[in-house]
Write a structure and sequence with these properties.
The chain has 415 residues and is of the alpha+beta class. It folds into 2 domains: 6-190, Sandwich (Jelly Rolls), CATH 2.60.120; 196-355, Orthogonal Bundle (Arc Repressor Mutant, subunit A), CATH 1.10.10.60. 52% of the residues lie in helices and 15% in strands. It is built from 18 helices and 9 strands. Strands 1, 2, 3, 4, 5, 6, 7, 8 and 9 form a 9-stranded mixed β-sheet that branches. A hairpin with a 2-residue loop joins strand 4 (40-54) and strand 5. Helix 6 crosses helix 7 (222-233) and helix 9 (260-266) crosses helix 10. The longest helix is centred in the middle third of the chain and has 23 residues, at 161-183.
Length: 415
């Protein structure tokens, strides 16, 4: 097992902590430290060659390779055959992806942007891929080289700067996913570890996460997950979860006008007081003071739309075991079923039925680990009136029947 892995700061600029995106150039002629990335970035290799371990997969690196790294993914350059030079574009993941989703959801795509970026994180730029090169060059001009900046330019000198940067980043993500779709670069090697657990915790940190739930999802014991997190990050499970939630809170504070009450609900805190204390302990600032200093963008990503969507999501989380149906829930929030599904697709990439079944099945996984509970009892407990419907949805999401899951993992969990 490696020693503790360095967690890279989520701040994209030391000059301006609220900066939406930064551009810089990196060099490496010796093996850099393994890194856990708190925010998203693109790497564009301009010189050098070697191999990159990203999550569980090893990829060849050479000039004109573009790599997408998402929040709480782990990277490690494991081989250098020629010294590296690379461009780094670090960006505010939540804000840019919210902007991209506005239009992506209208196309009815089976795969989300994130799913595509996770499945194919590496692409090779060829002569015909000039659009991506032009976008990178435009970002470098708009942002400046971070390590060479003495001070951030006054906002008045760069009107509509953030809007322009977001539009460039959305274009870059679209061009990257299109290129990956045609190339579908395969890793040269696949390794097995629990790297994906960090990414899962980040994506689901607003939920009621426990070590037991993670253990059921990654098919191991809670002690295995706990040990891995501590040895990898140096943080306990609950400290790591709080770190991720505060990171998301900072993004919401800078780029939305969510109230403290809404933030605490979205991020999984007990109440506003709990969030305030956690935020102050982590940053040394009150939320109101931090927002006053660093808030950059208002109404850039349909804030009103996000308010309603999060309220619906929270309602489903809290009432998944009840007799919920799309028509009644949409009426409760004054929406049509179609509009409610649009909002859910925008935020969680599932319509009402898909999201409700996902929540029910994930909770069922926890309950099935209790030896005394039968499959039928679990089905009713998570909201299914028909065990056959439960089995069908469980099989679709987990790839096995509830009975098979229980036989395989309930014994391990009780040990």
């Amino acid at each position: 097992m490696r020693s503790v892995i360095n967690i890279q700061s989520a701040v994209r600029s030391q000059l301006d902590p609220g900066k939406l995106c930064s551009f810089d150039v990196g060099y490496s002629n010796e093996y850099p430290k393994t890194m856990i990335h708190q925010d998203a970035r693109f790497w564009l290799v301009t010189q050098g060659s070697g191999k990159l371990l990203l999550q569980n997969n090893v990829y060849e690196l050479k000039p004109n390779m573009l790599i997408s790294i998402l929040p709480w993914q782990v990277s490690d350059i494991i081989e250098i055959t020629a010294p590296f030079q690379y461009t780094v574009i670090a960006y505010n993941y939540d804000t840019v992806l919210r902007a991209a989703k506005i239009f992506n959801d209208q196309e009815g795509l089976a795969e989300s942007i994130i799913t595509r970026m996770e499945a194919n994180p590496v692409a090779e730029l060829k002569e015909e891929n000039k659009t991506i090169g032009n976008l990178v060059n435009t970002l470098s001009i708009e942002l400046g080289k971070e390590s060479s900046l003495v001070s951030p330019p006054p906002p008045a000198q760069v009107p509509l700067h953030n809007v322009y940067v977001v539009s460039l980043l959305v274009q870059l993500i679209v061009e990257f996913t299109r290129l990956c779709q045609t190339q579908k670069s395969k890793p040269v090697e696949t390794r097995t570890d629990y790297t994906e657990v960090l990414r899962y915790i980040y994506l689901h940190c607003s939920e009621k996460l426990t070590l037991e739930k993670l253990a059921s999802l990654f098919y191991c014991s809670p002690s295995t997950i706990s040990s891995y997190l501590t040895k990898t990050t140096g943080l306990s499970f609950f400290d790591l979860l709080n770190e991720m939630r505060i990171g998301k809170a900072i993004n919401f504070i800078m780029y939305t006008d969510f109230t403290l009450k809404e933030l605490s609900e979205f991020l999984g805190y007990v109440d506003e007081s709990h969030l305030s204390k956690a935020f102050n302990a982590c940053t040394g600032s009150k939320i109101s003071e931090y927002r006053k200093v660093y808030q950059k963008v208002e109404n850039i990503c349909r804030i009103e739309k996000s308010h309603i969507a999060y309220t619906i999501i929270n309602y489903i989380y809290r009432n998944y075991a009840e007799d919920l149906n799309a028509s009644d829930l949409a009426h409760r929030f004054g929406l049509s079923v179609q509009k409610m599904n649009e909002l859910l697709l925008y935020q969680v990439e599932e319509n009402f039925t898909g999201f409700l079944n996902l929540i029910r099945v994930k909770h069922a996984c926890e309950l099935l680990l209790i030896p005394s509970k039968t499959v039928m009892e679990v089905a009713y407990e998570v909201g299914y009136k028909n065990p056959k419907t439960f089995t069908r949805n469980f099989l679709k999401i987990e790839g096995m029947t509830p009975q098979s899951f229980k036989q395989r993992y309930a014994g391990e969990a009780s040990e």
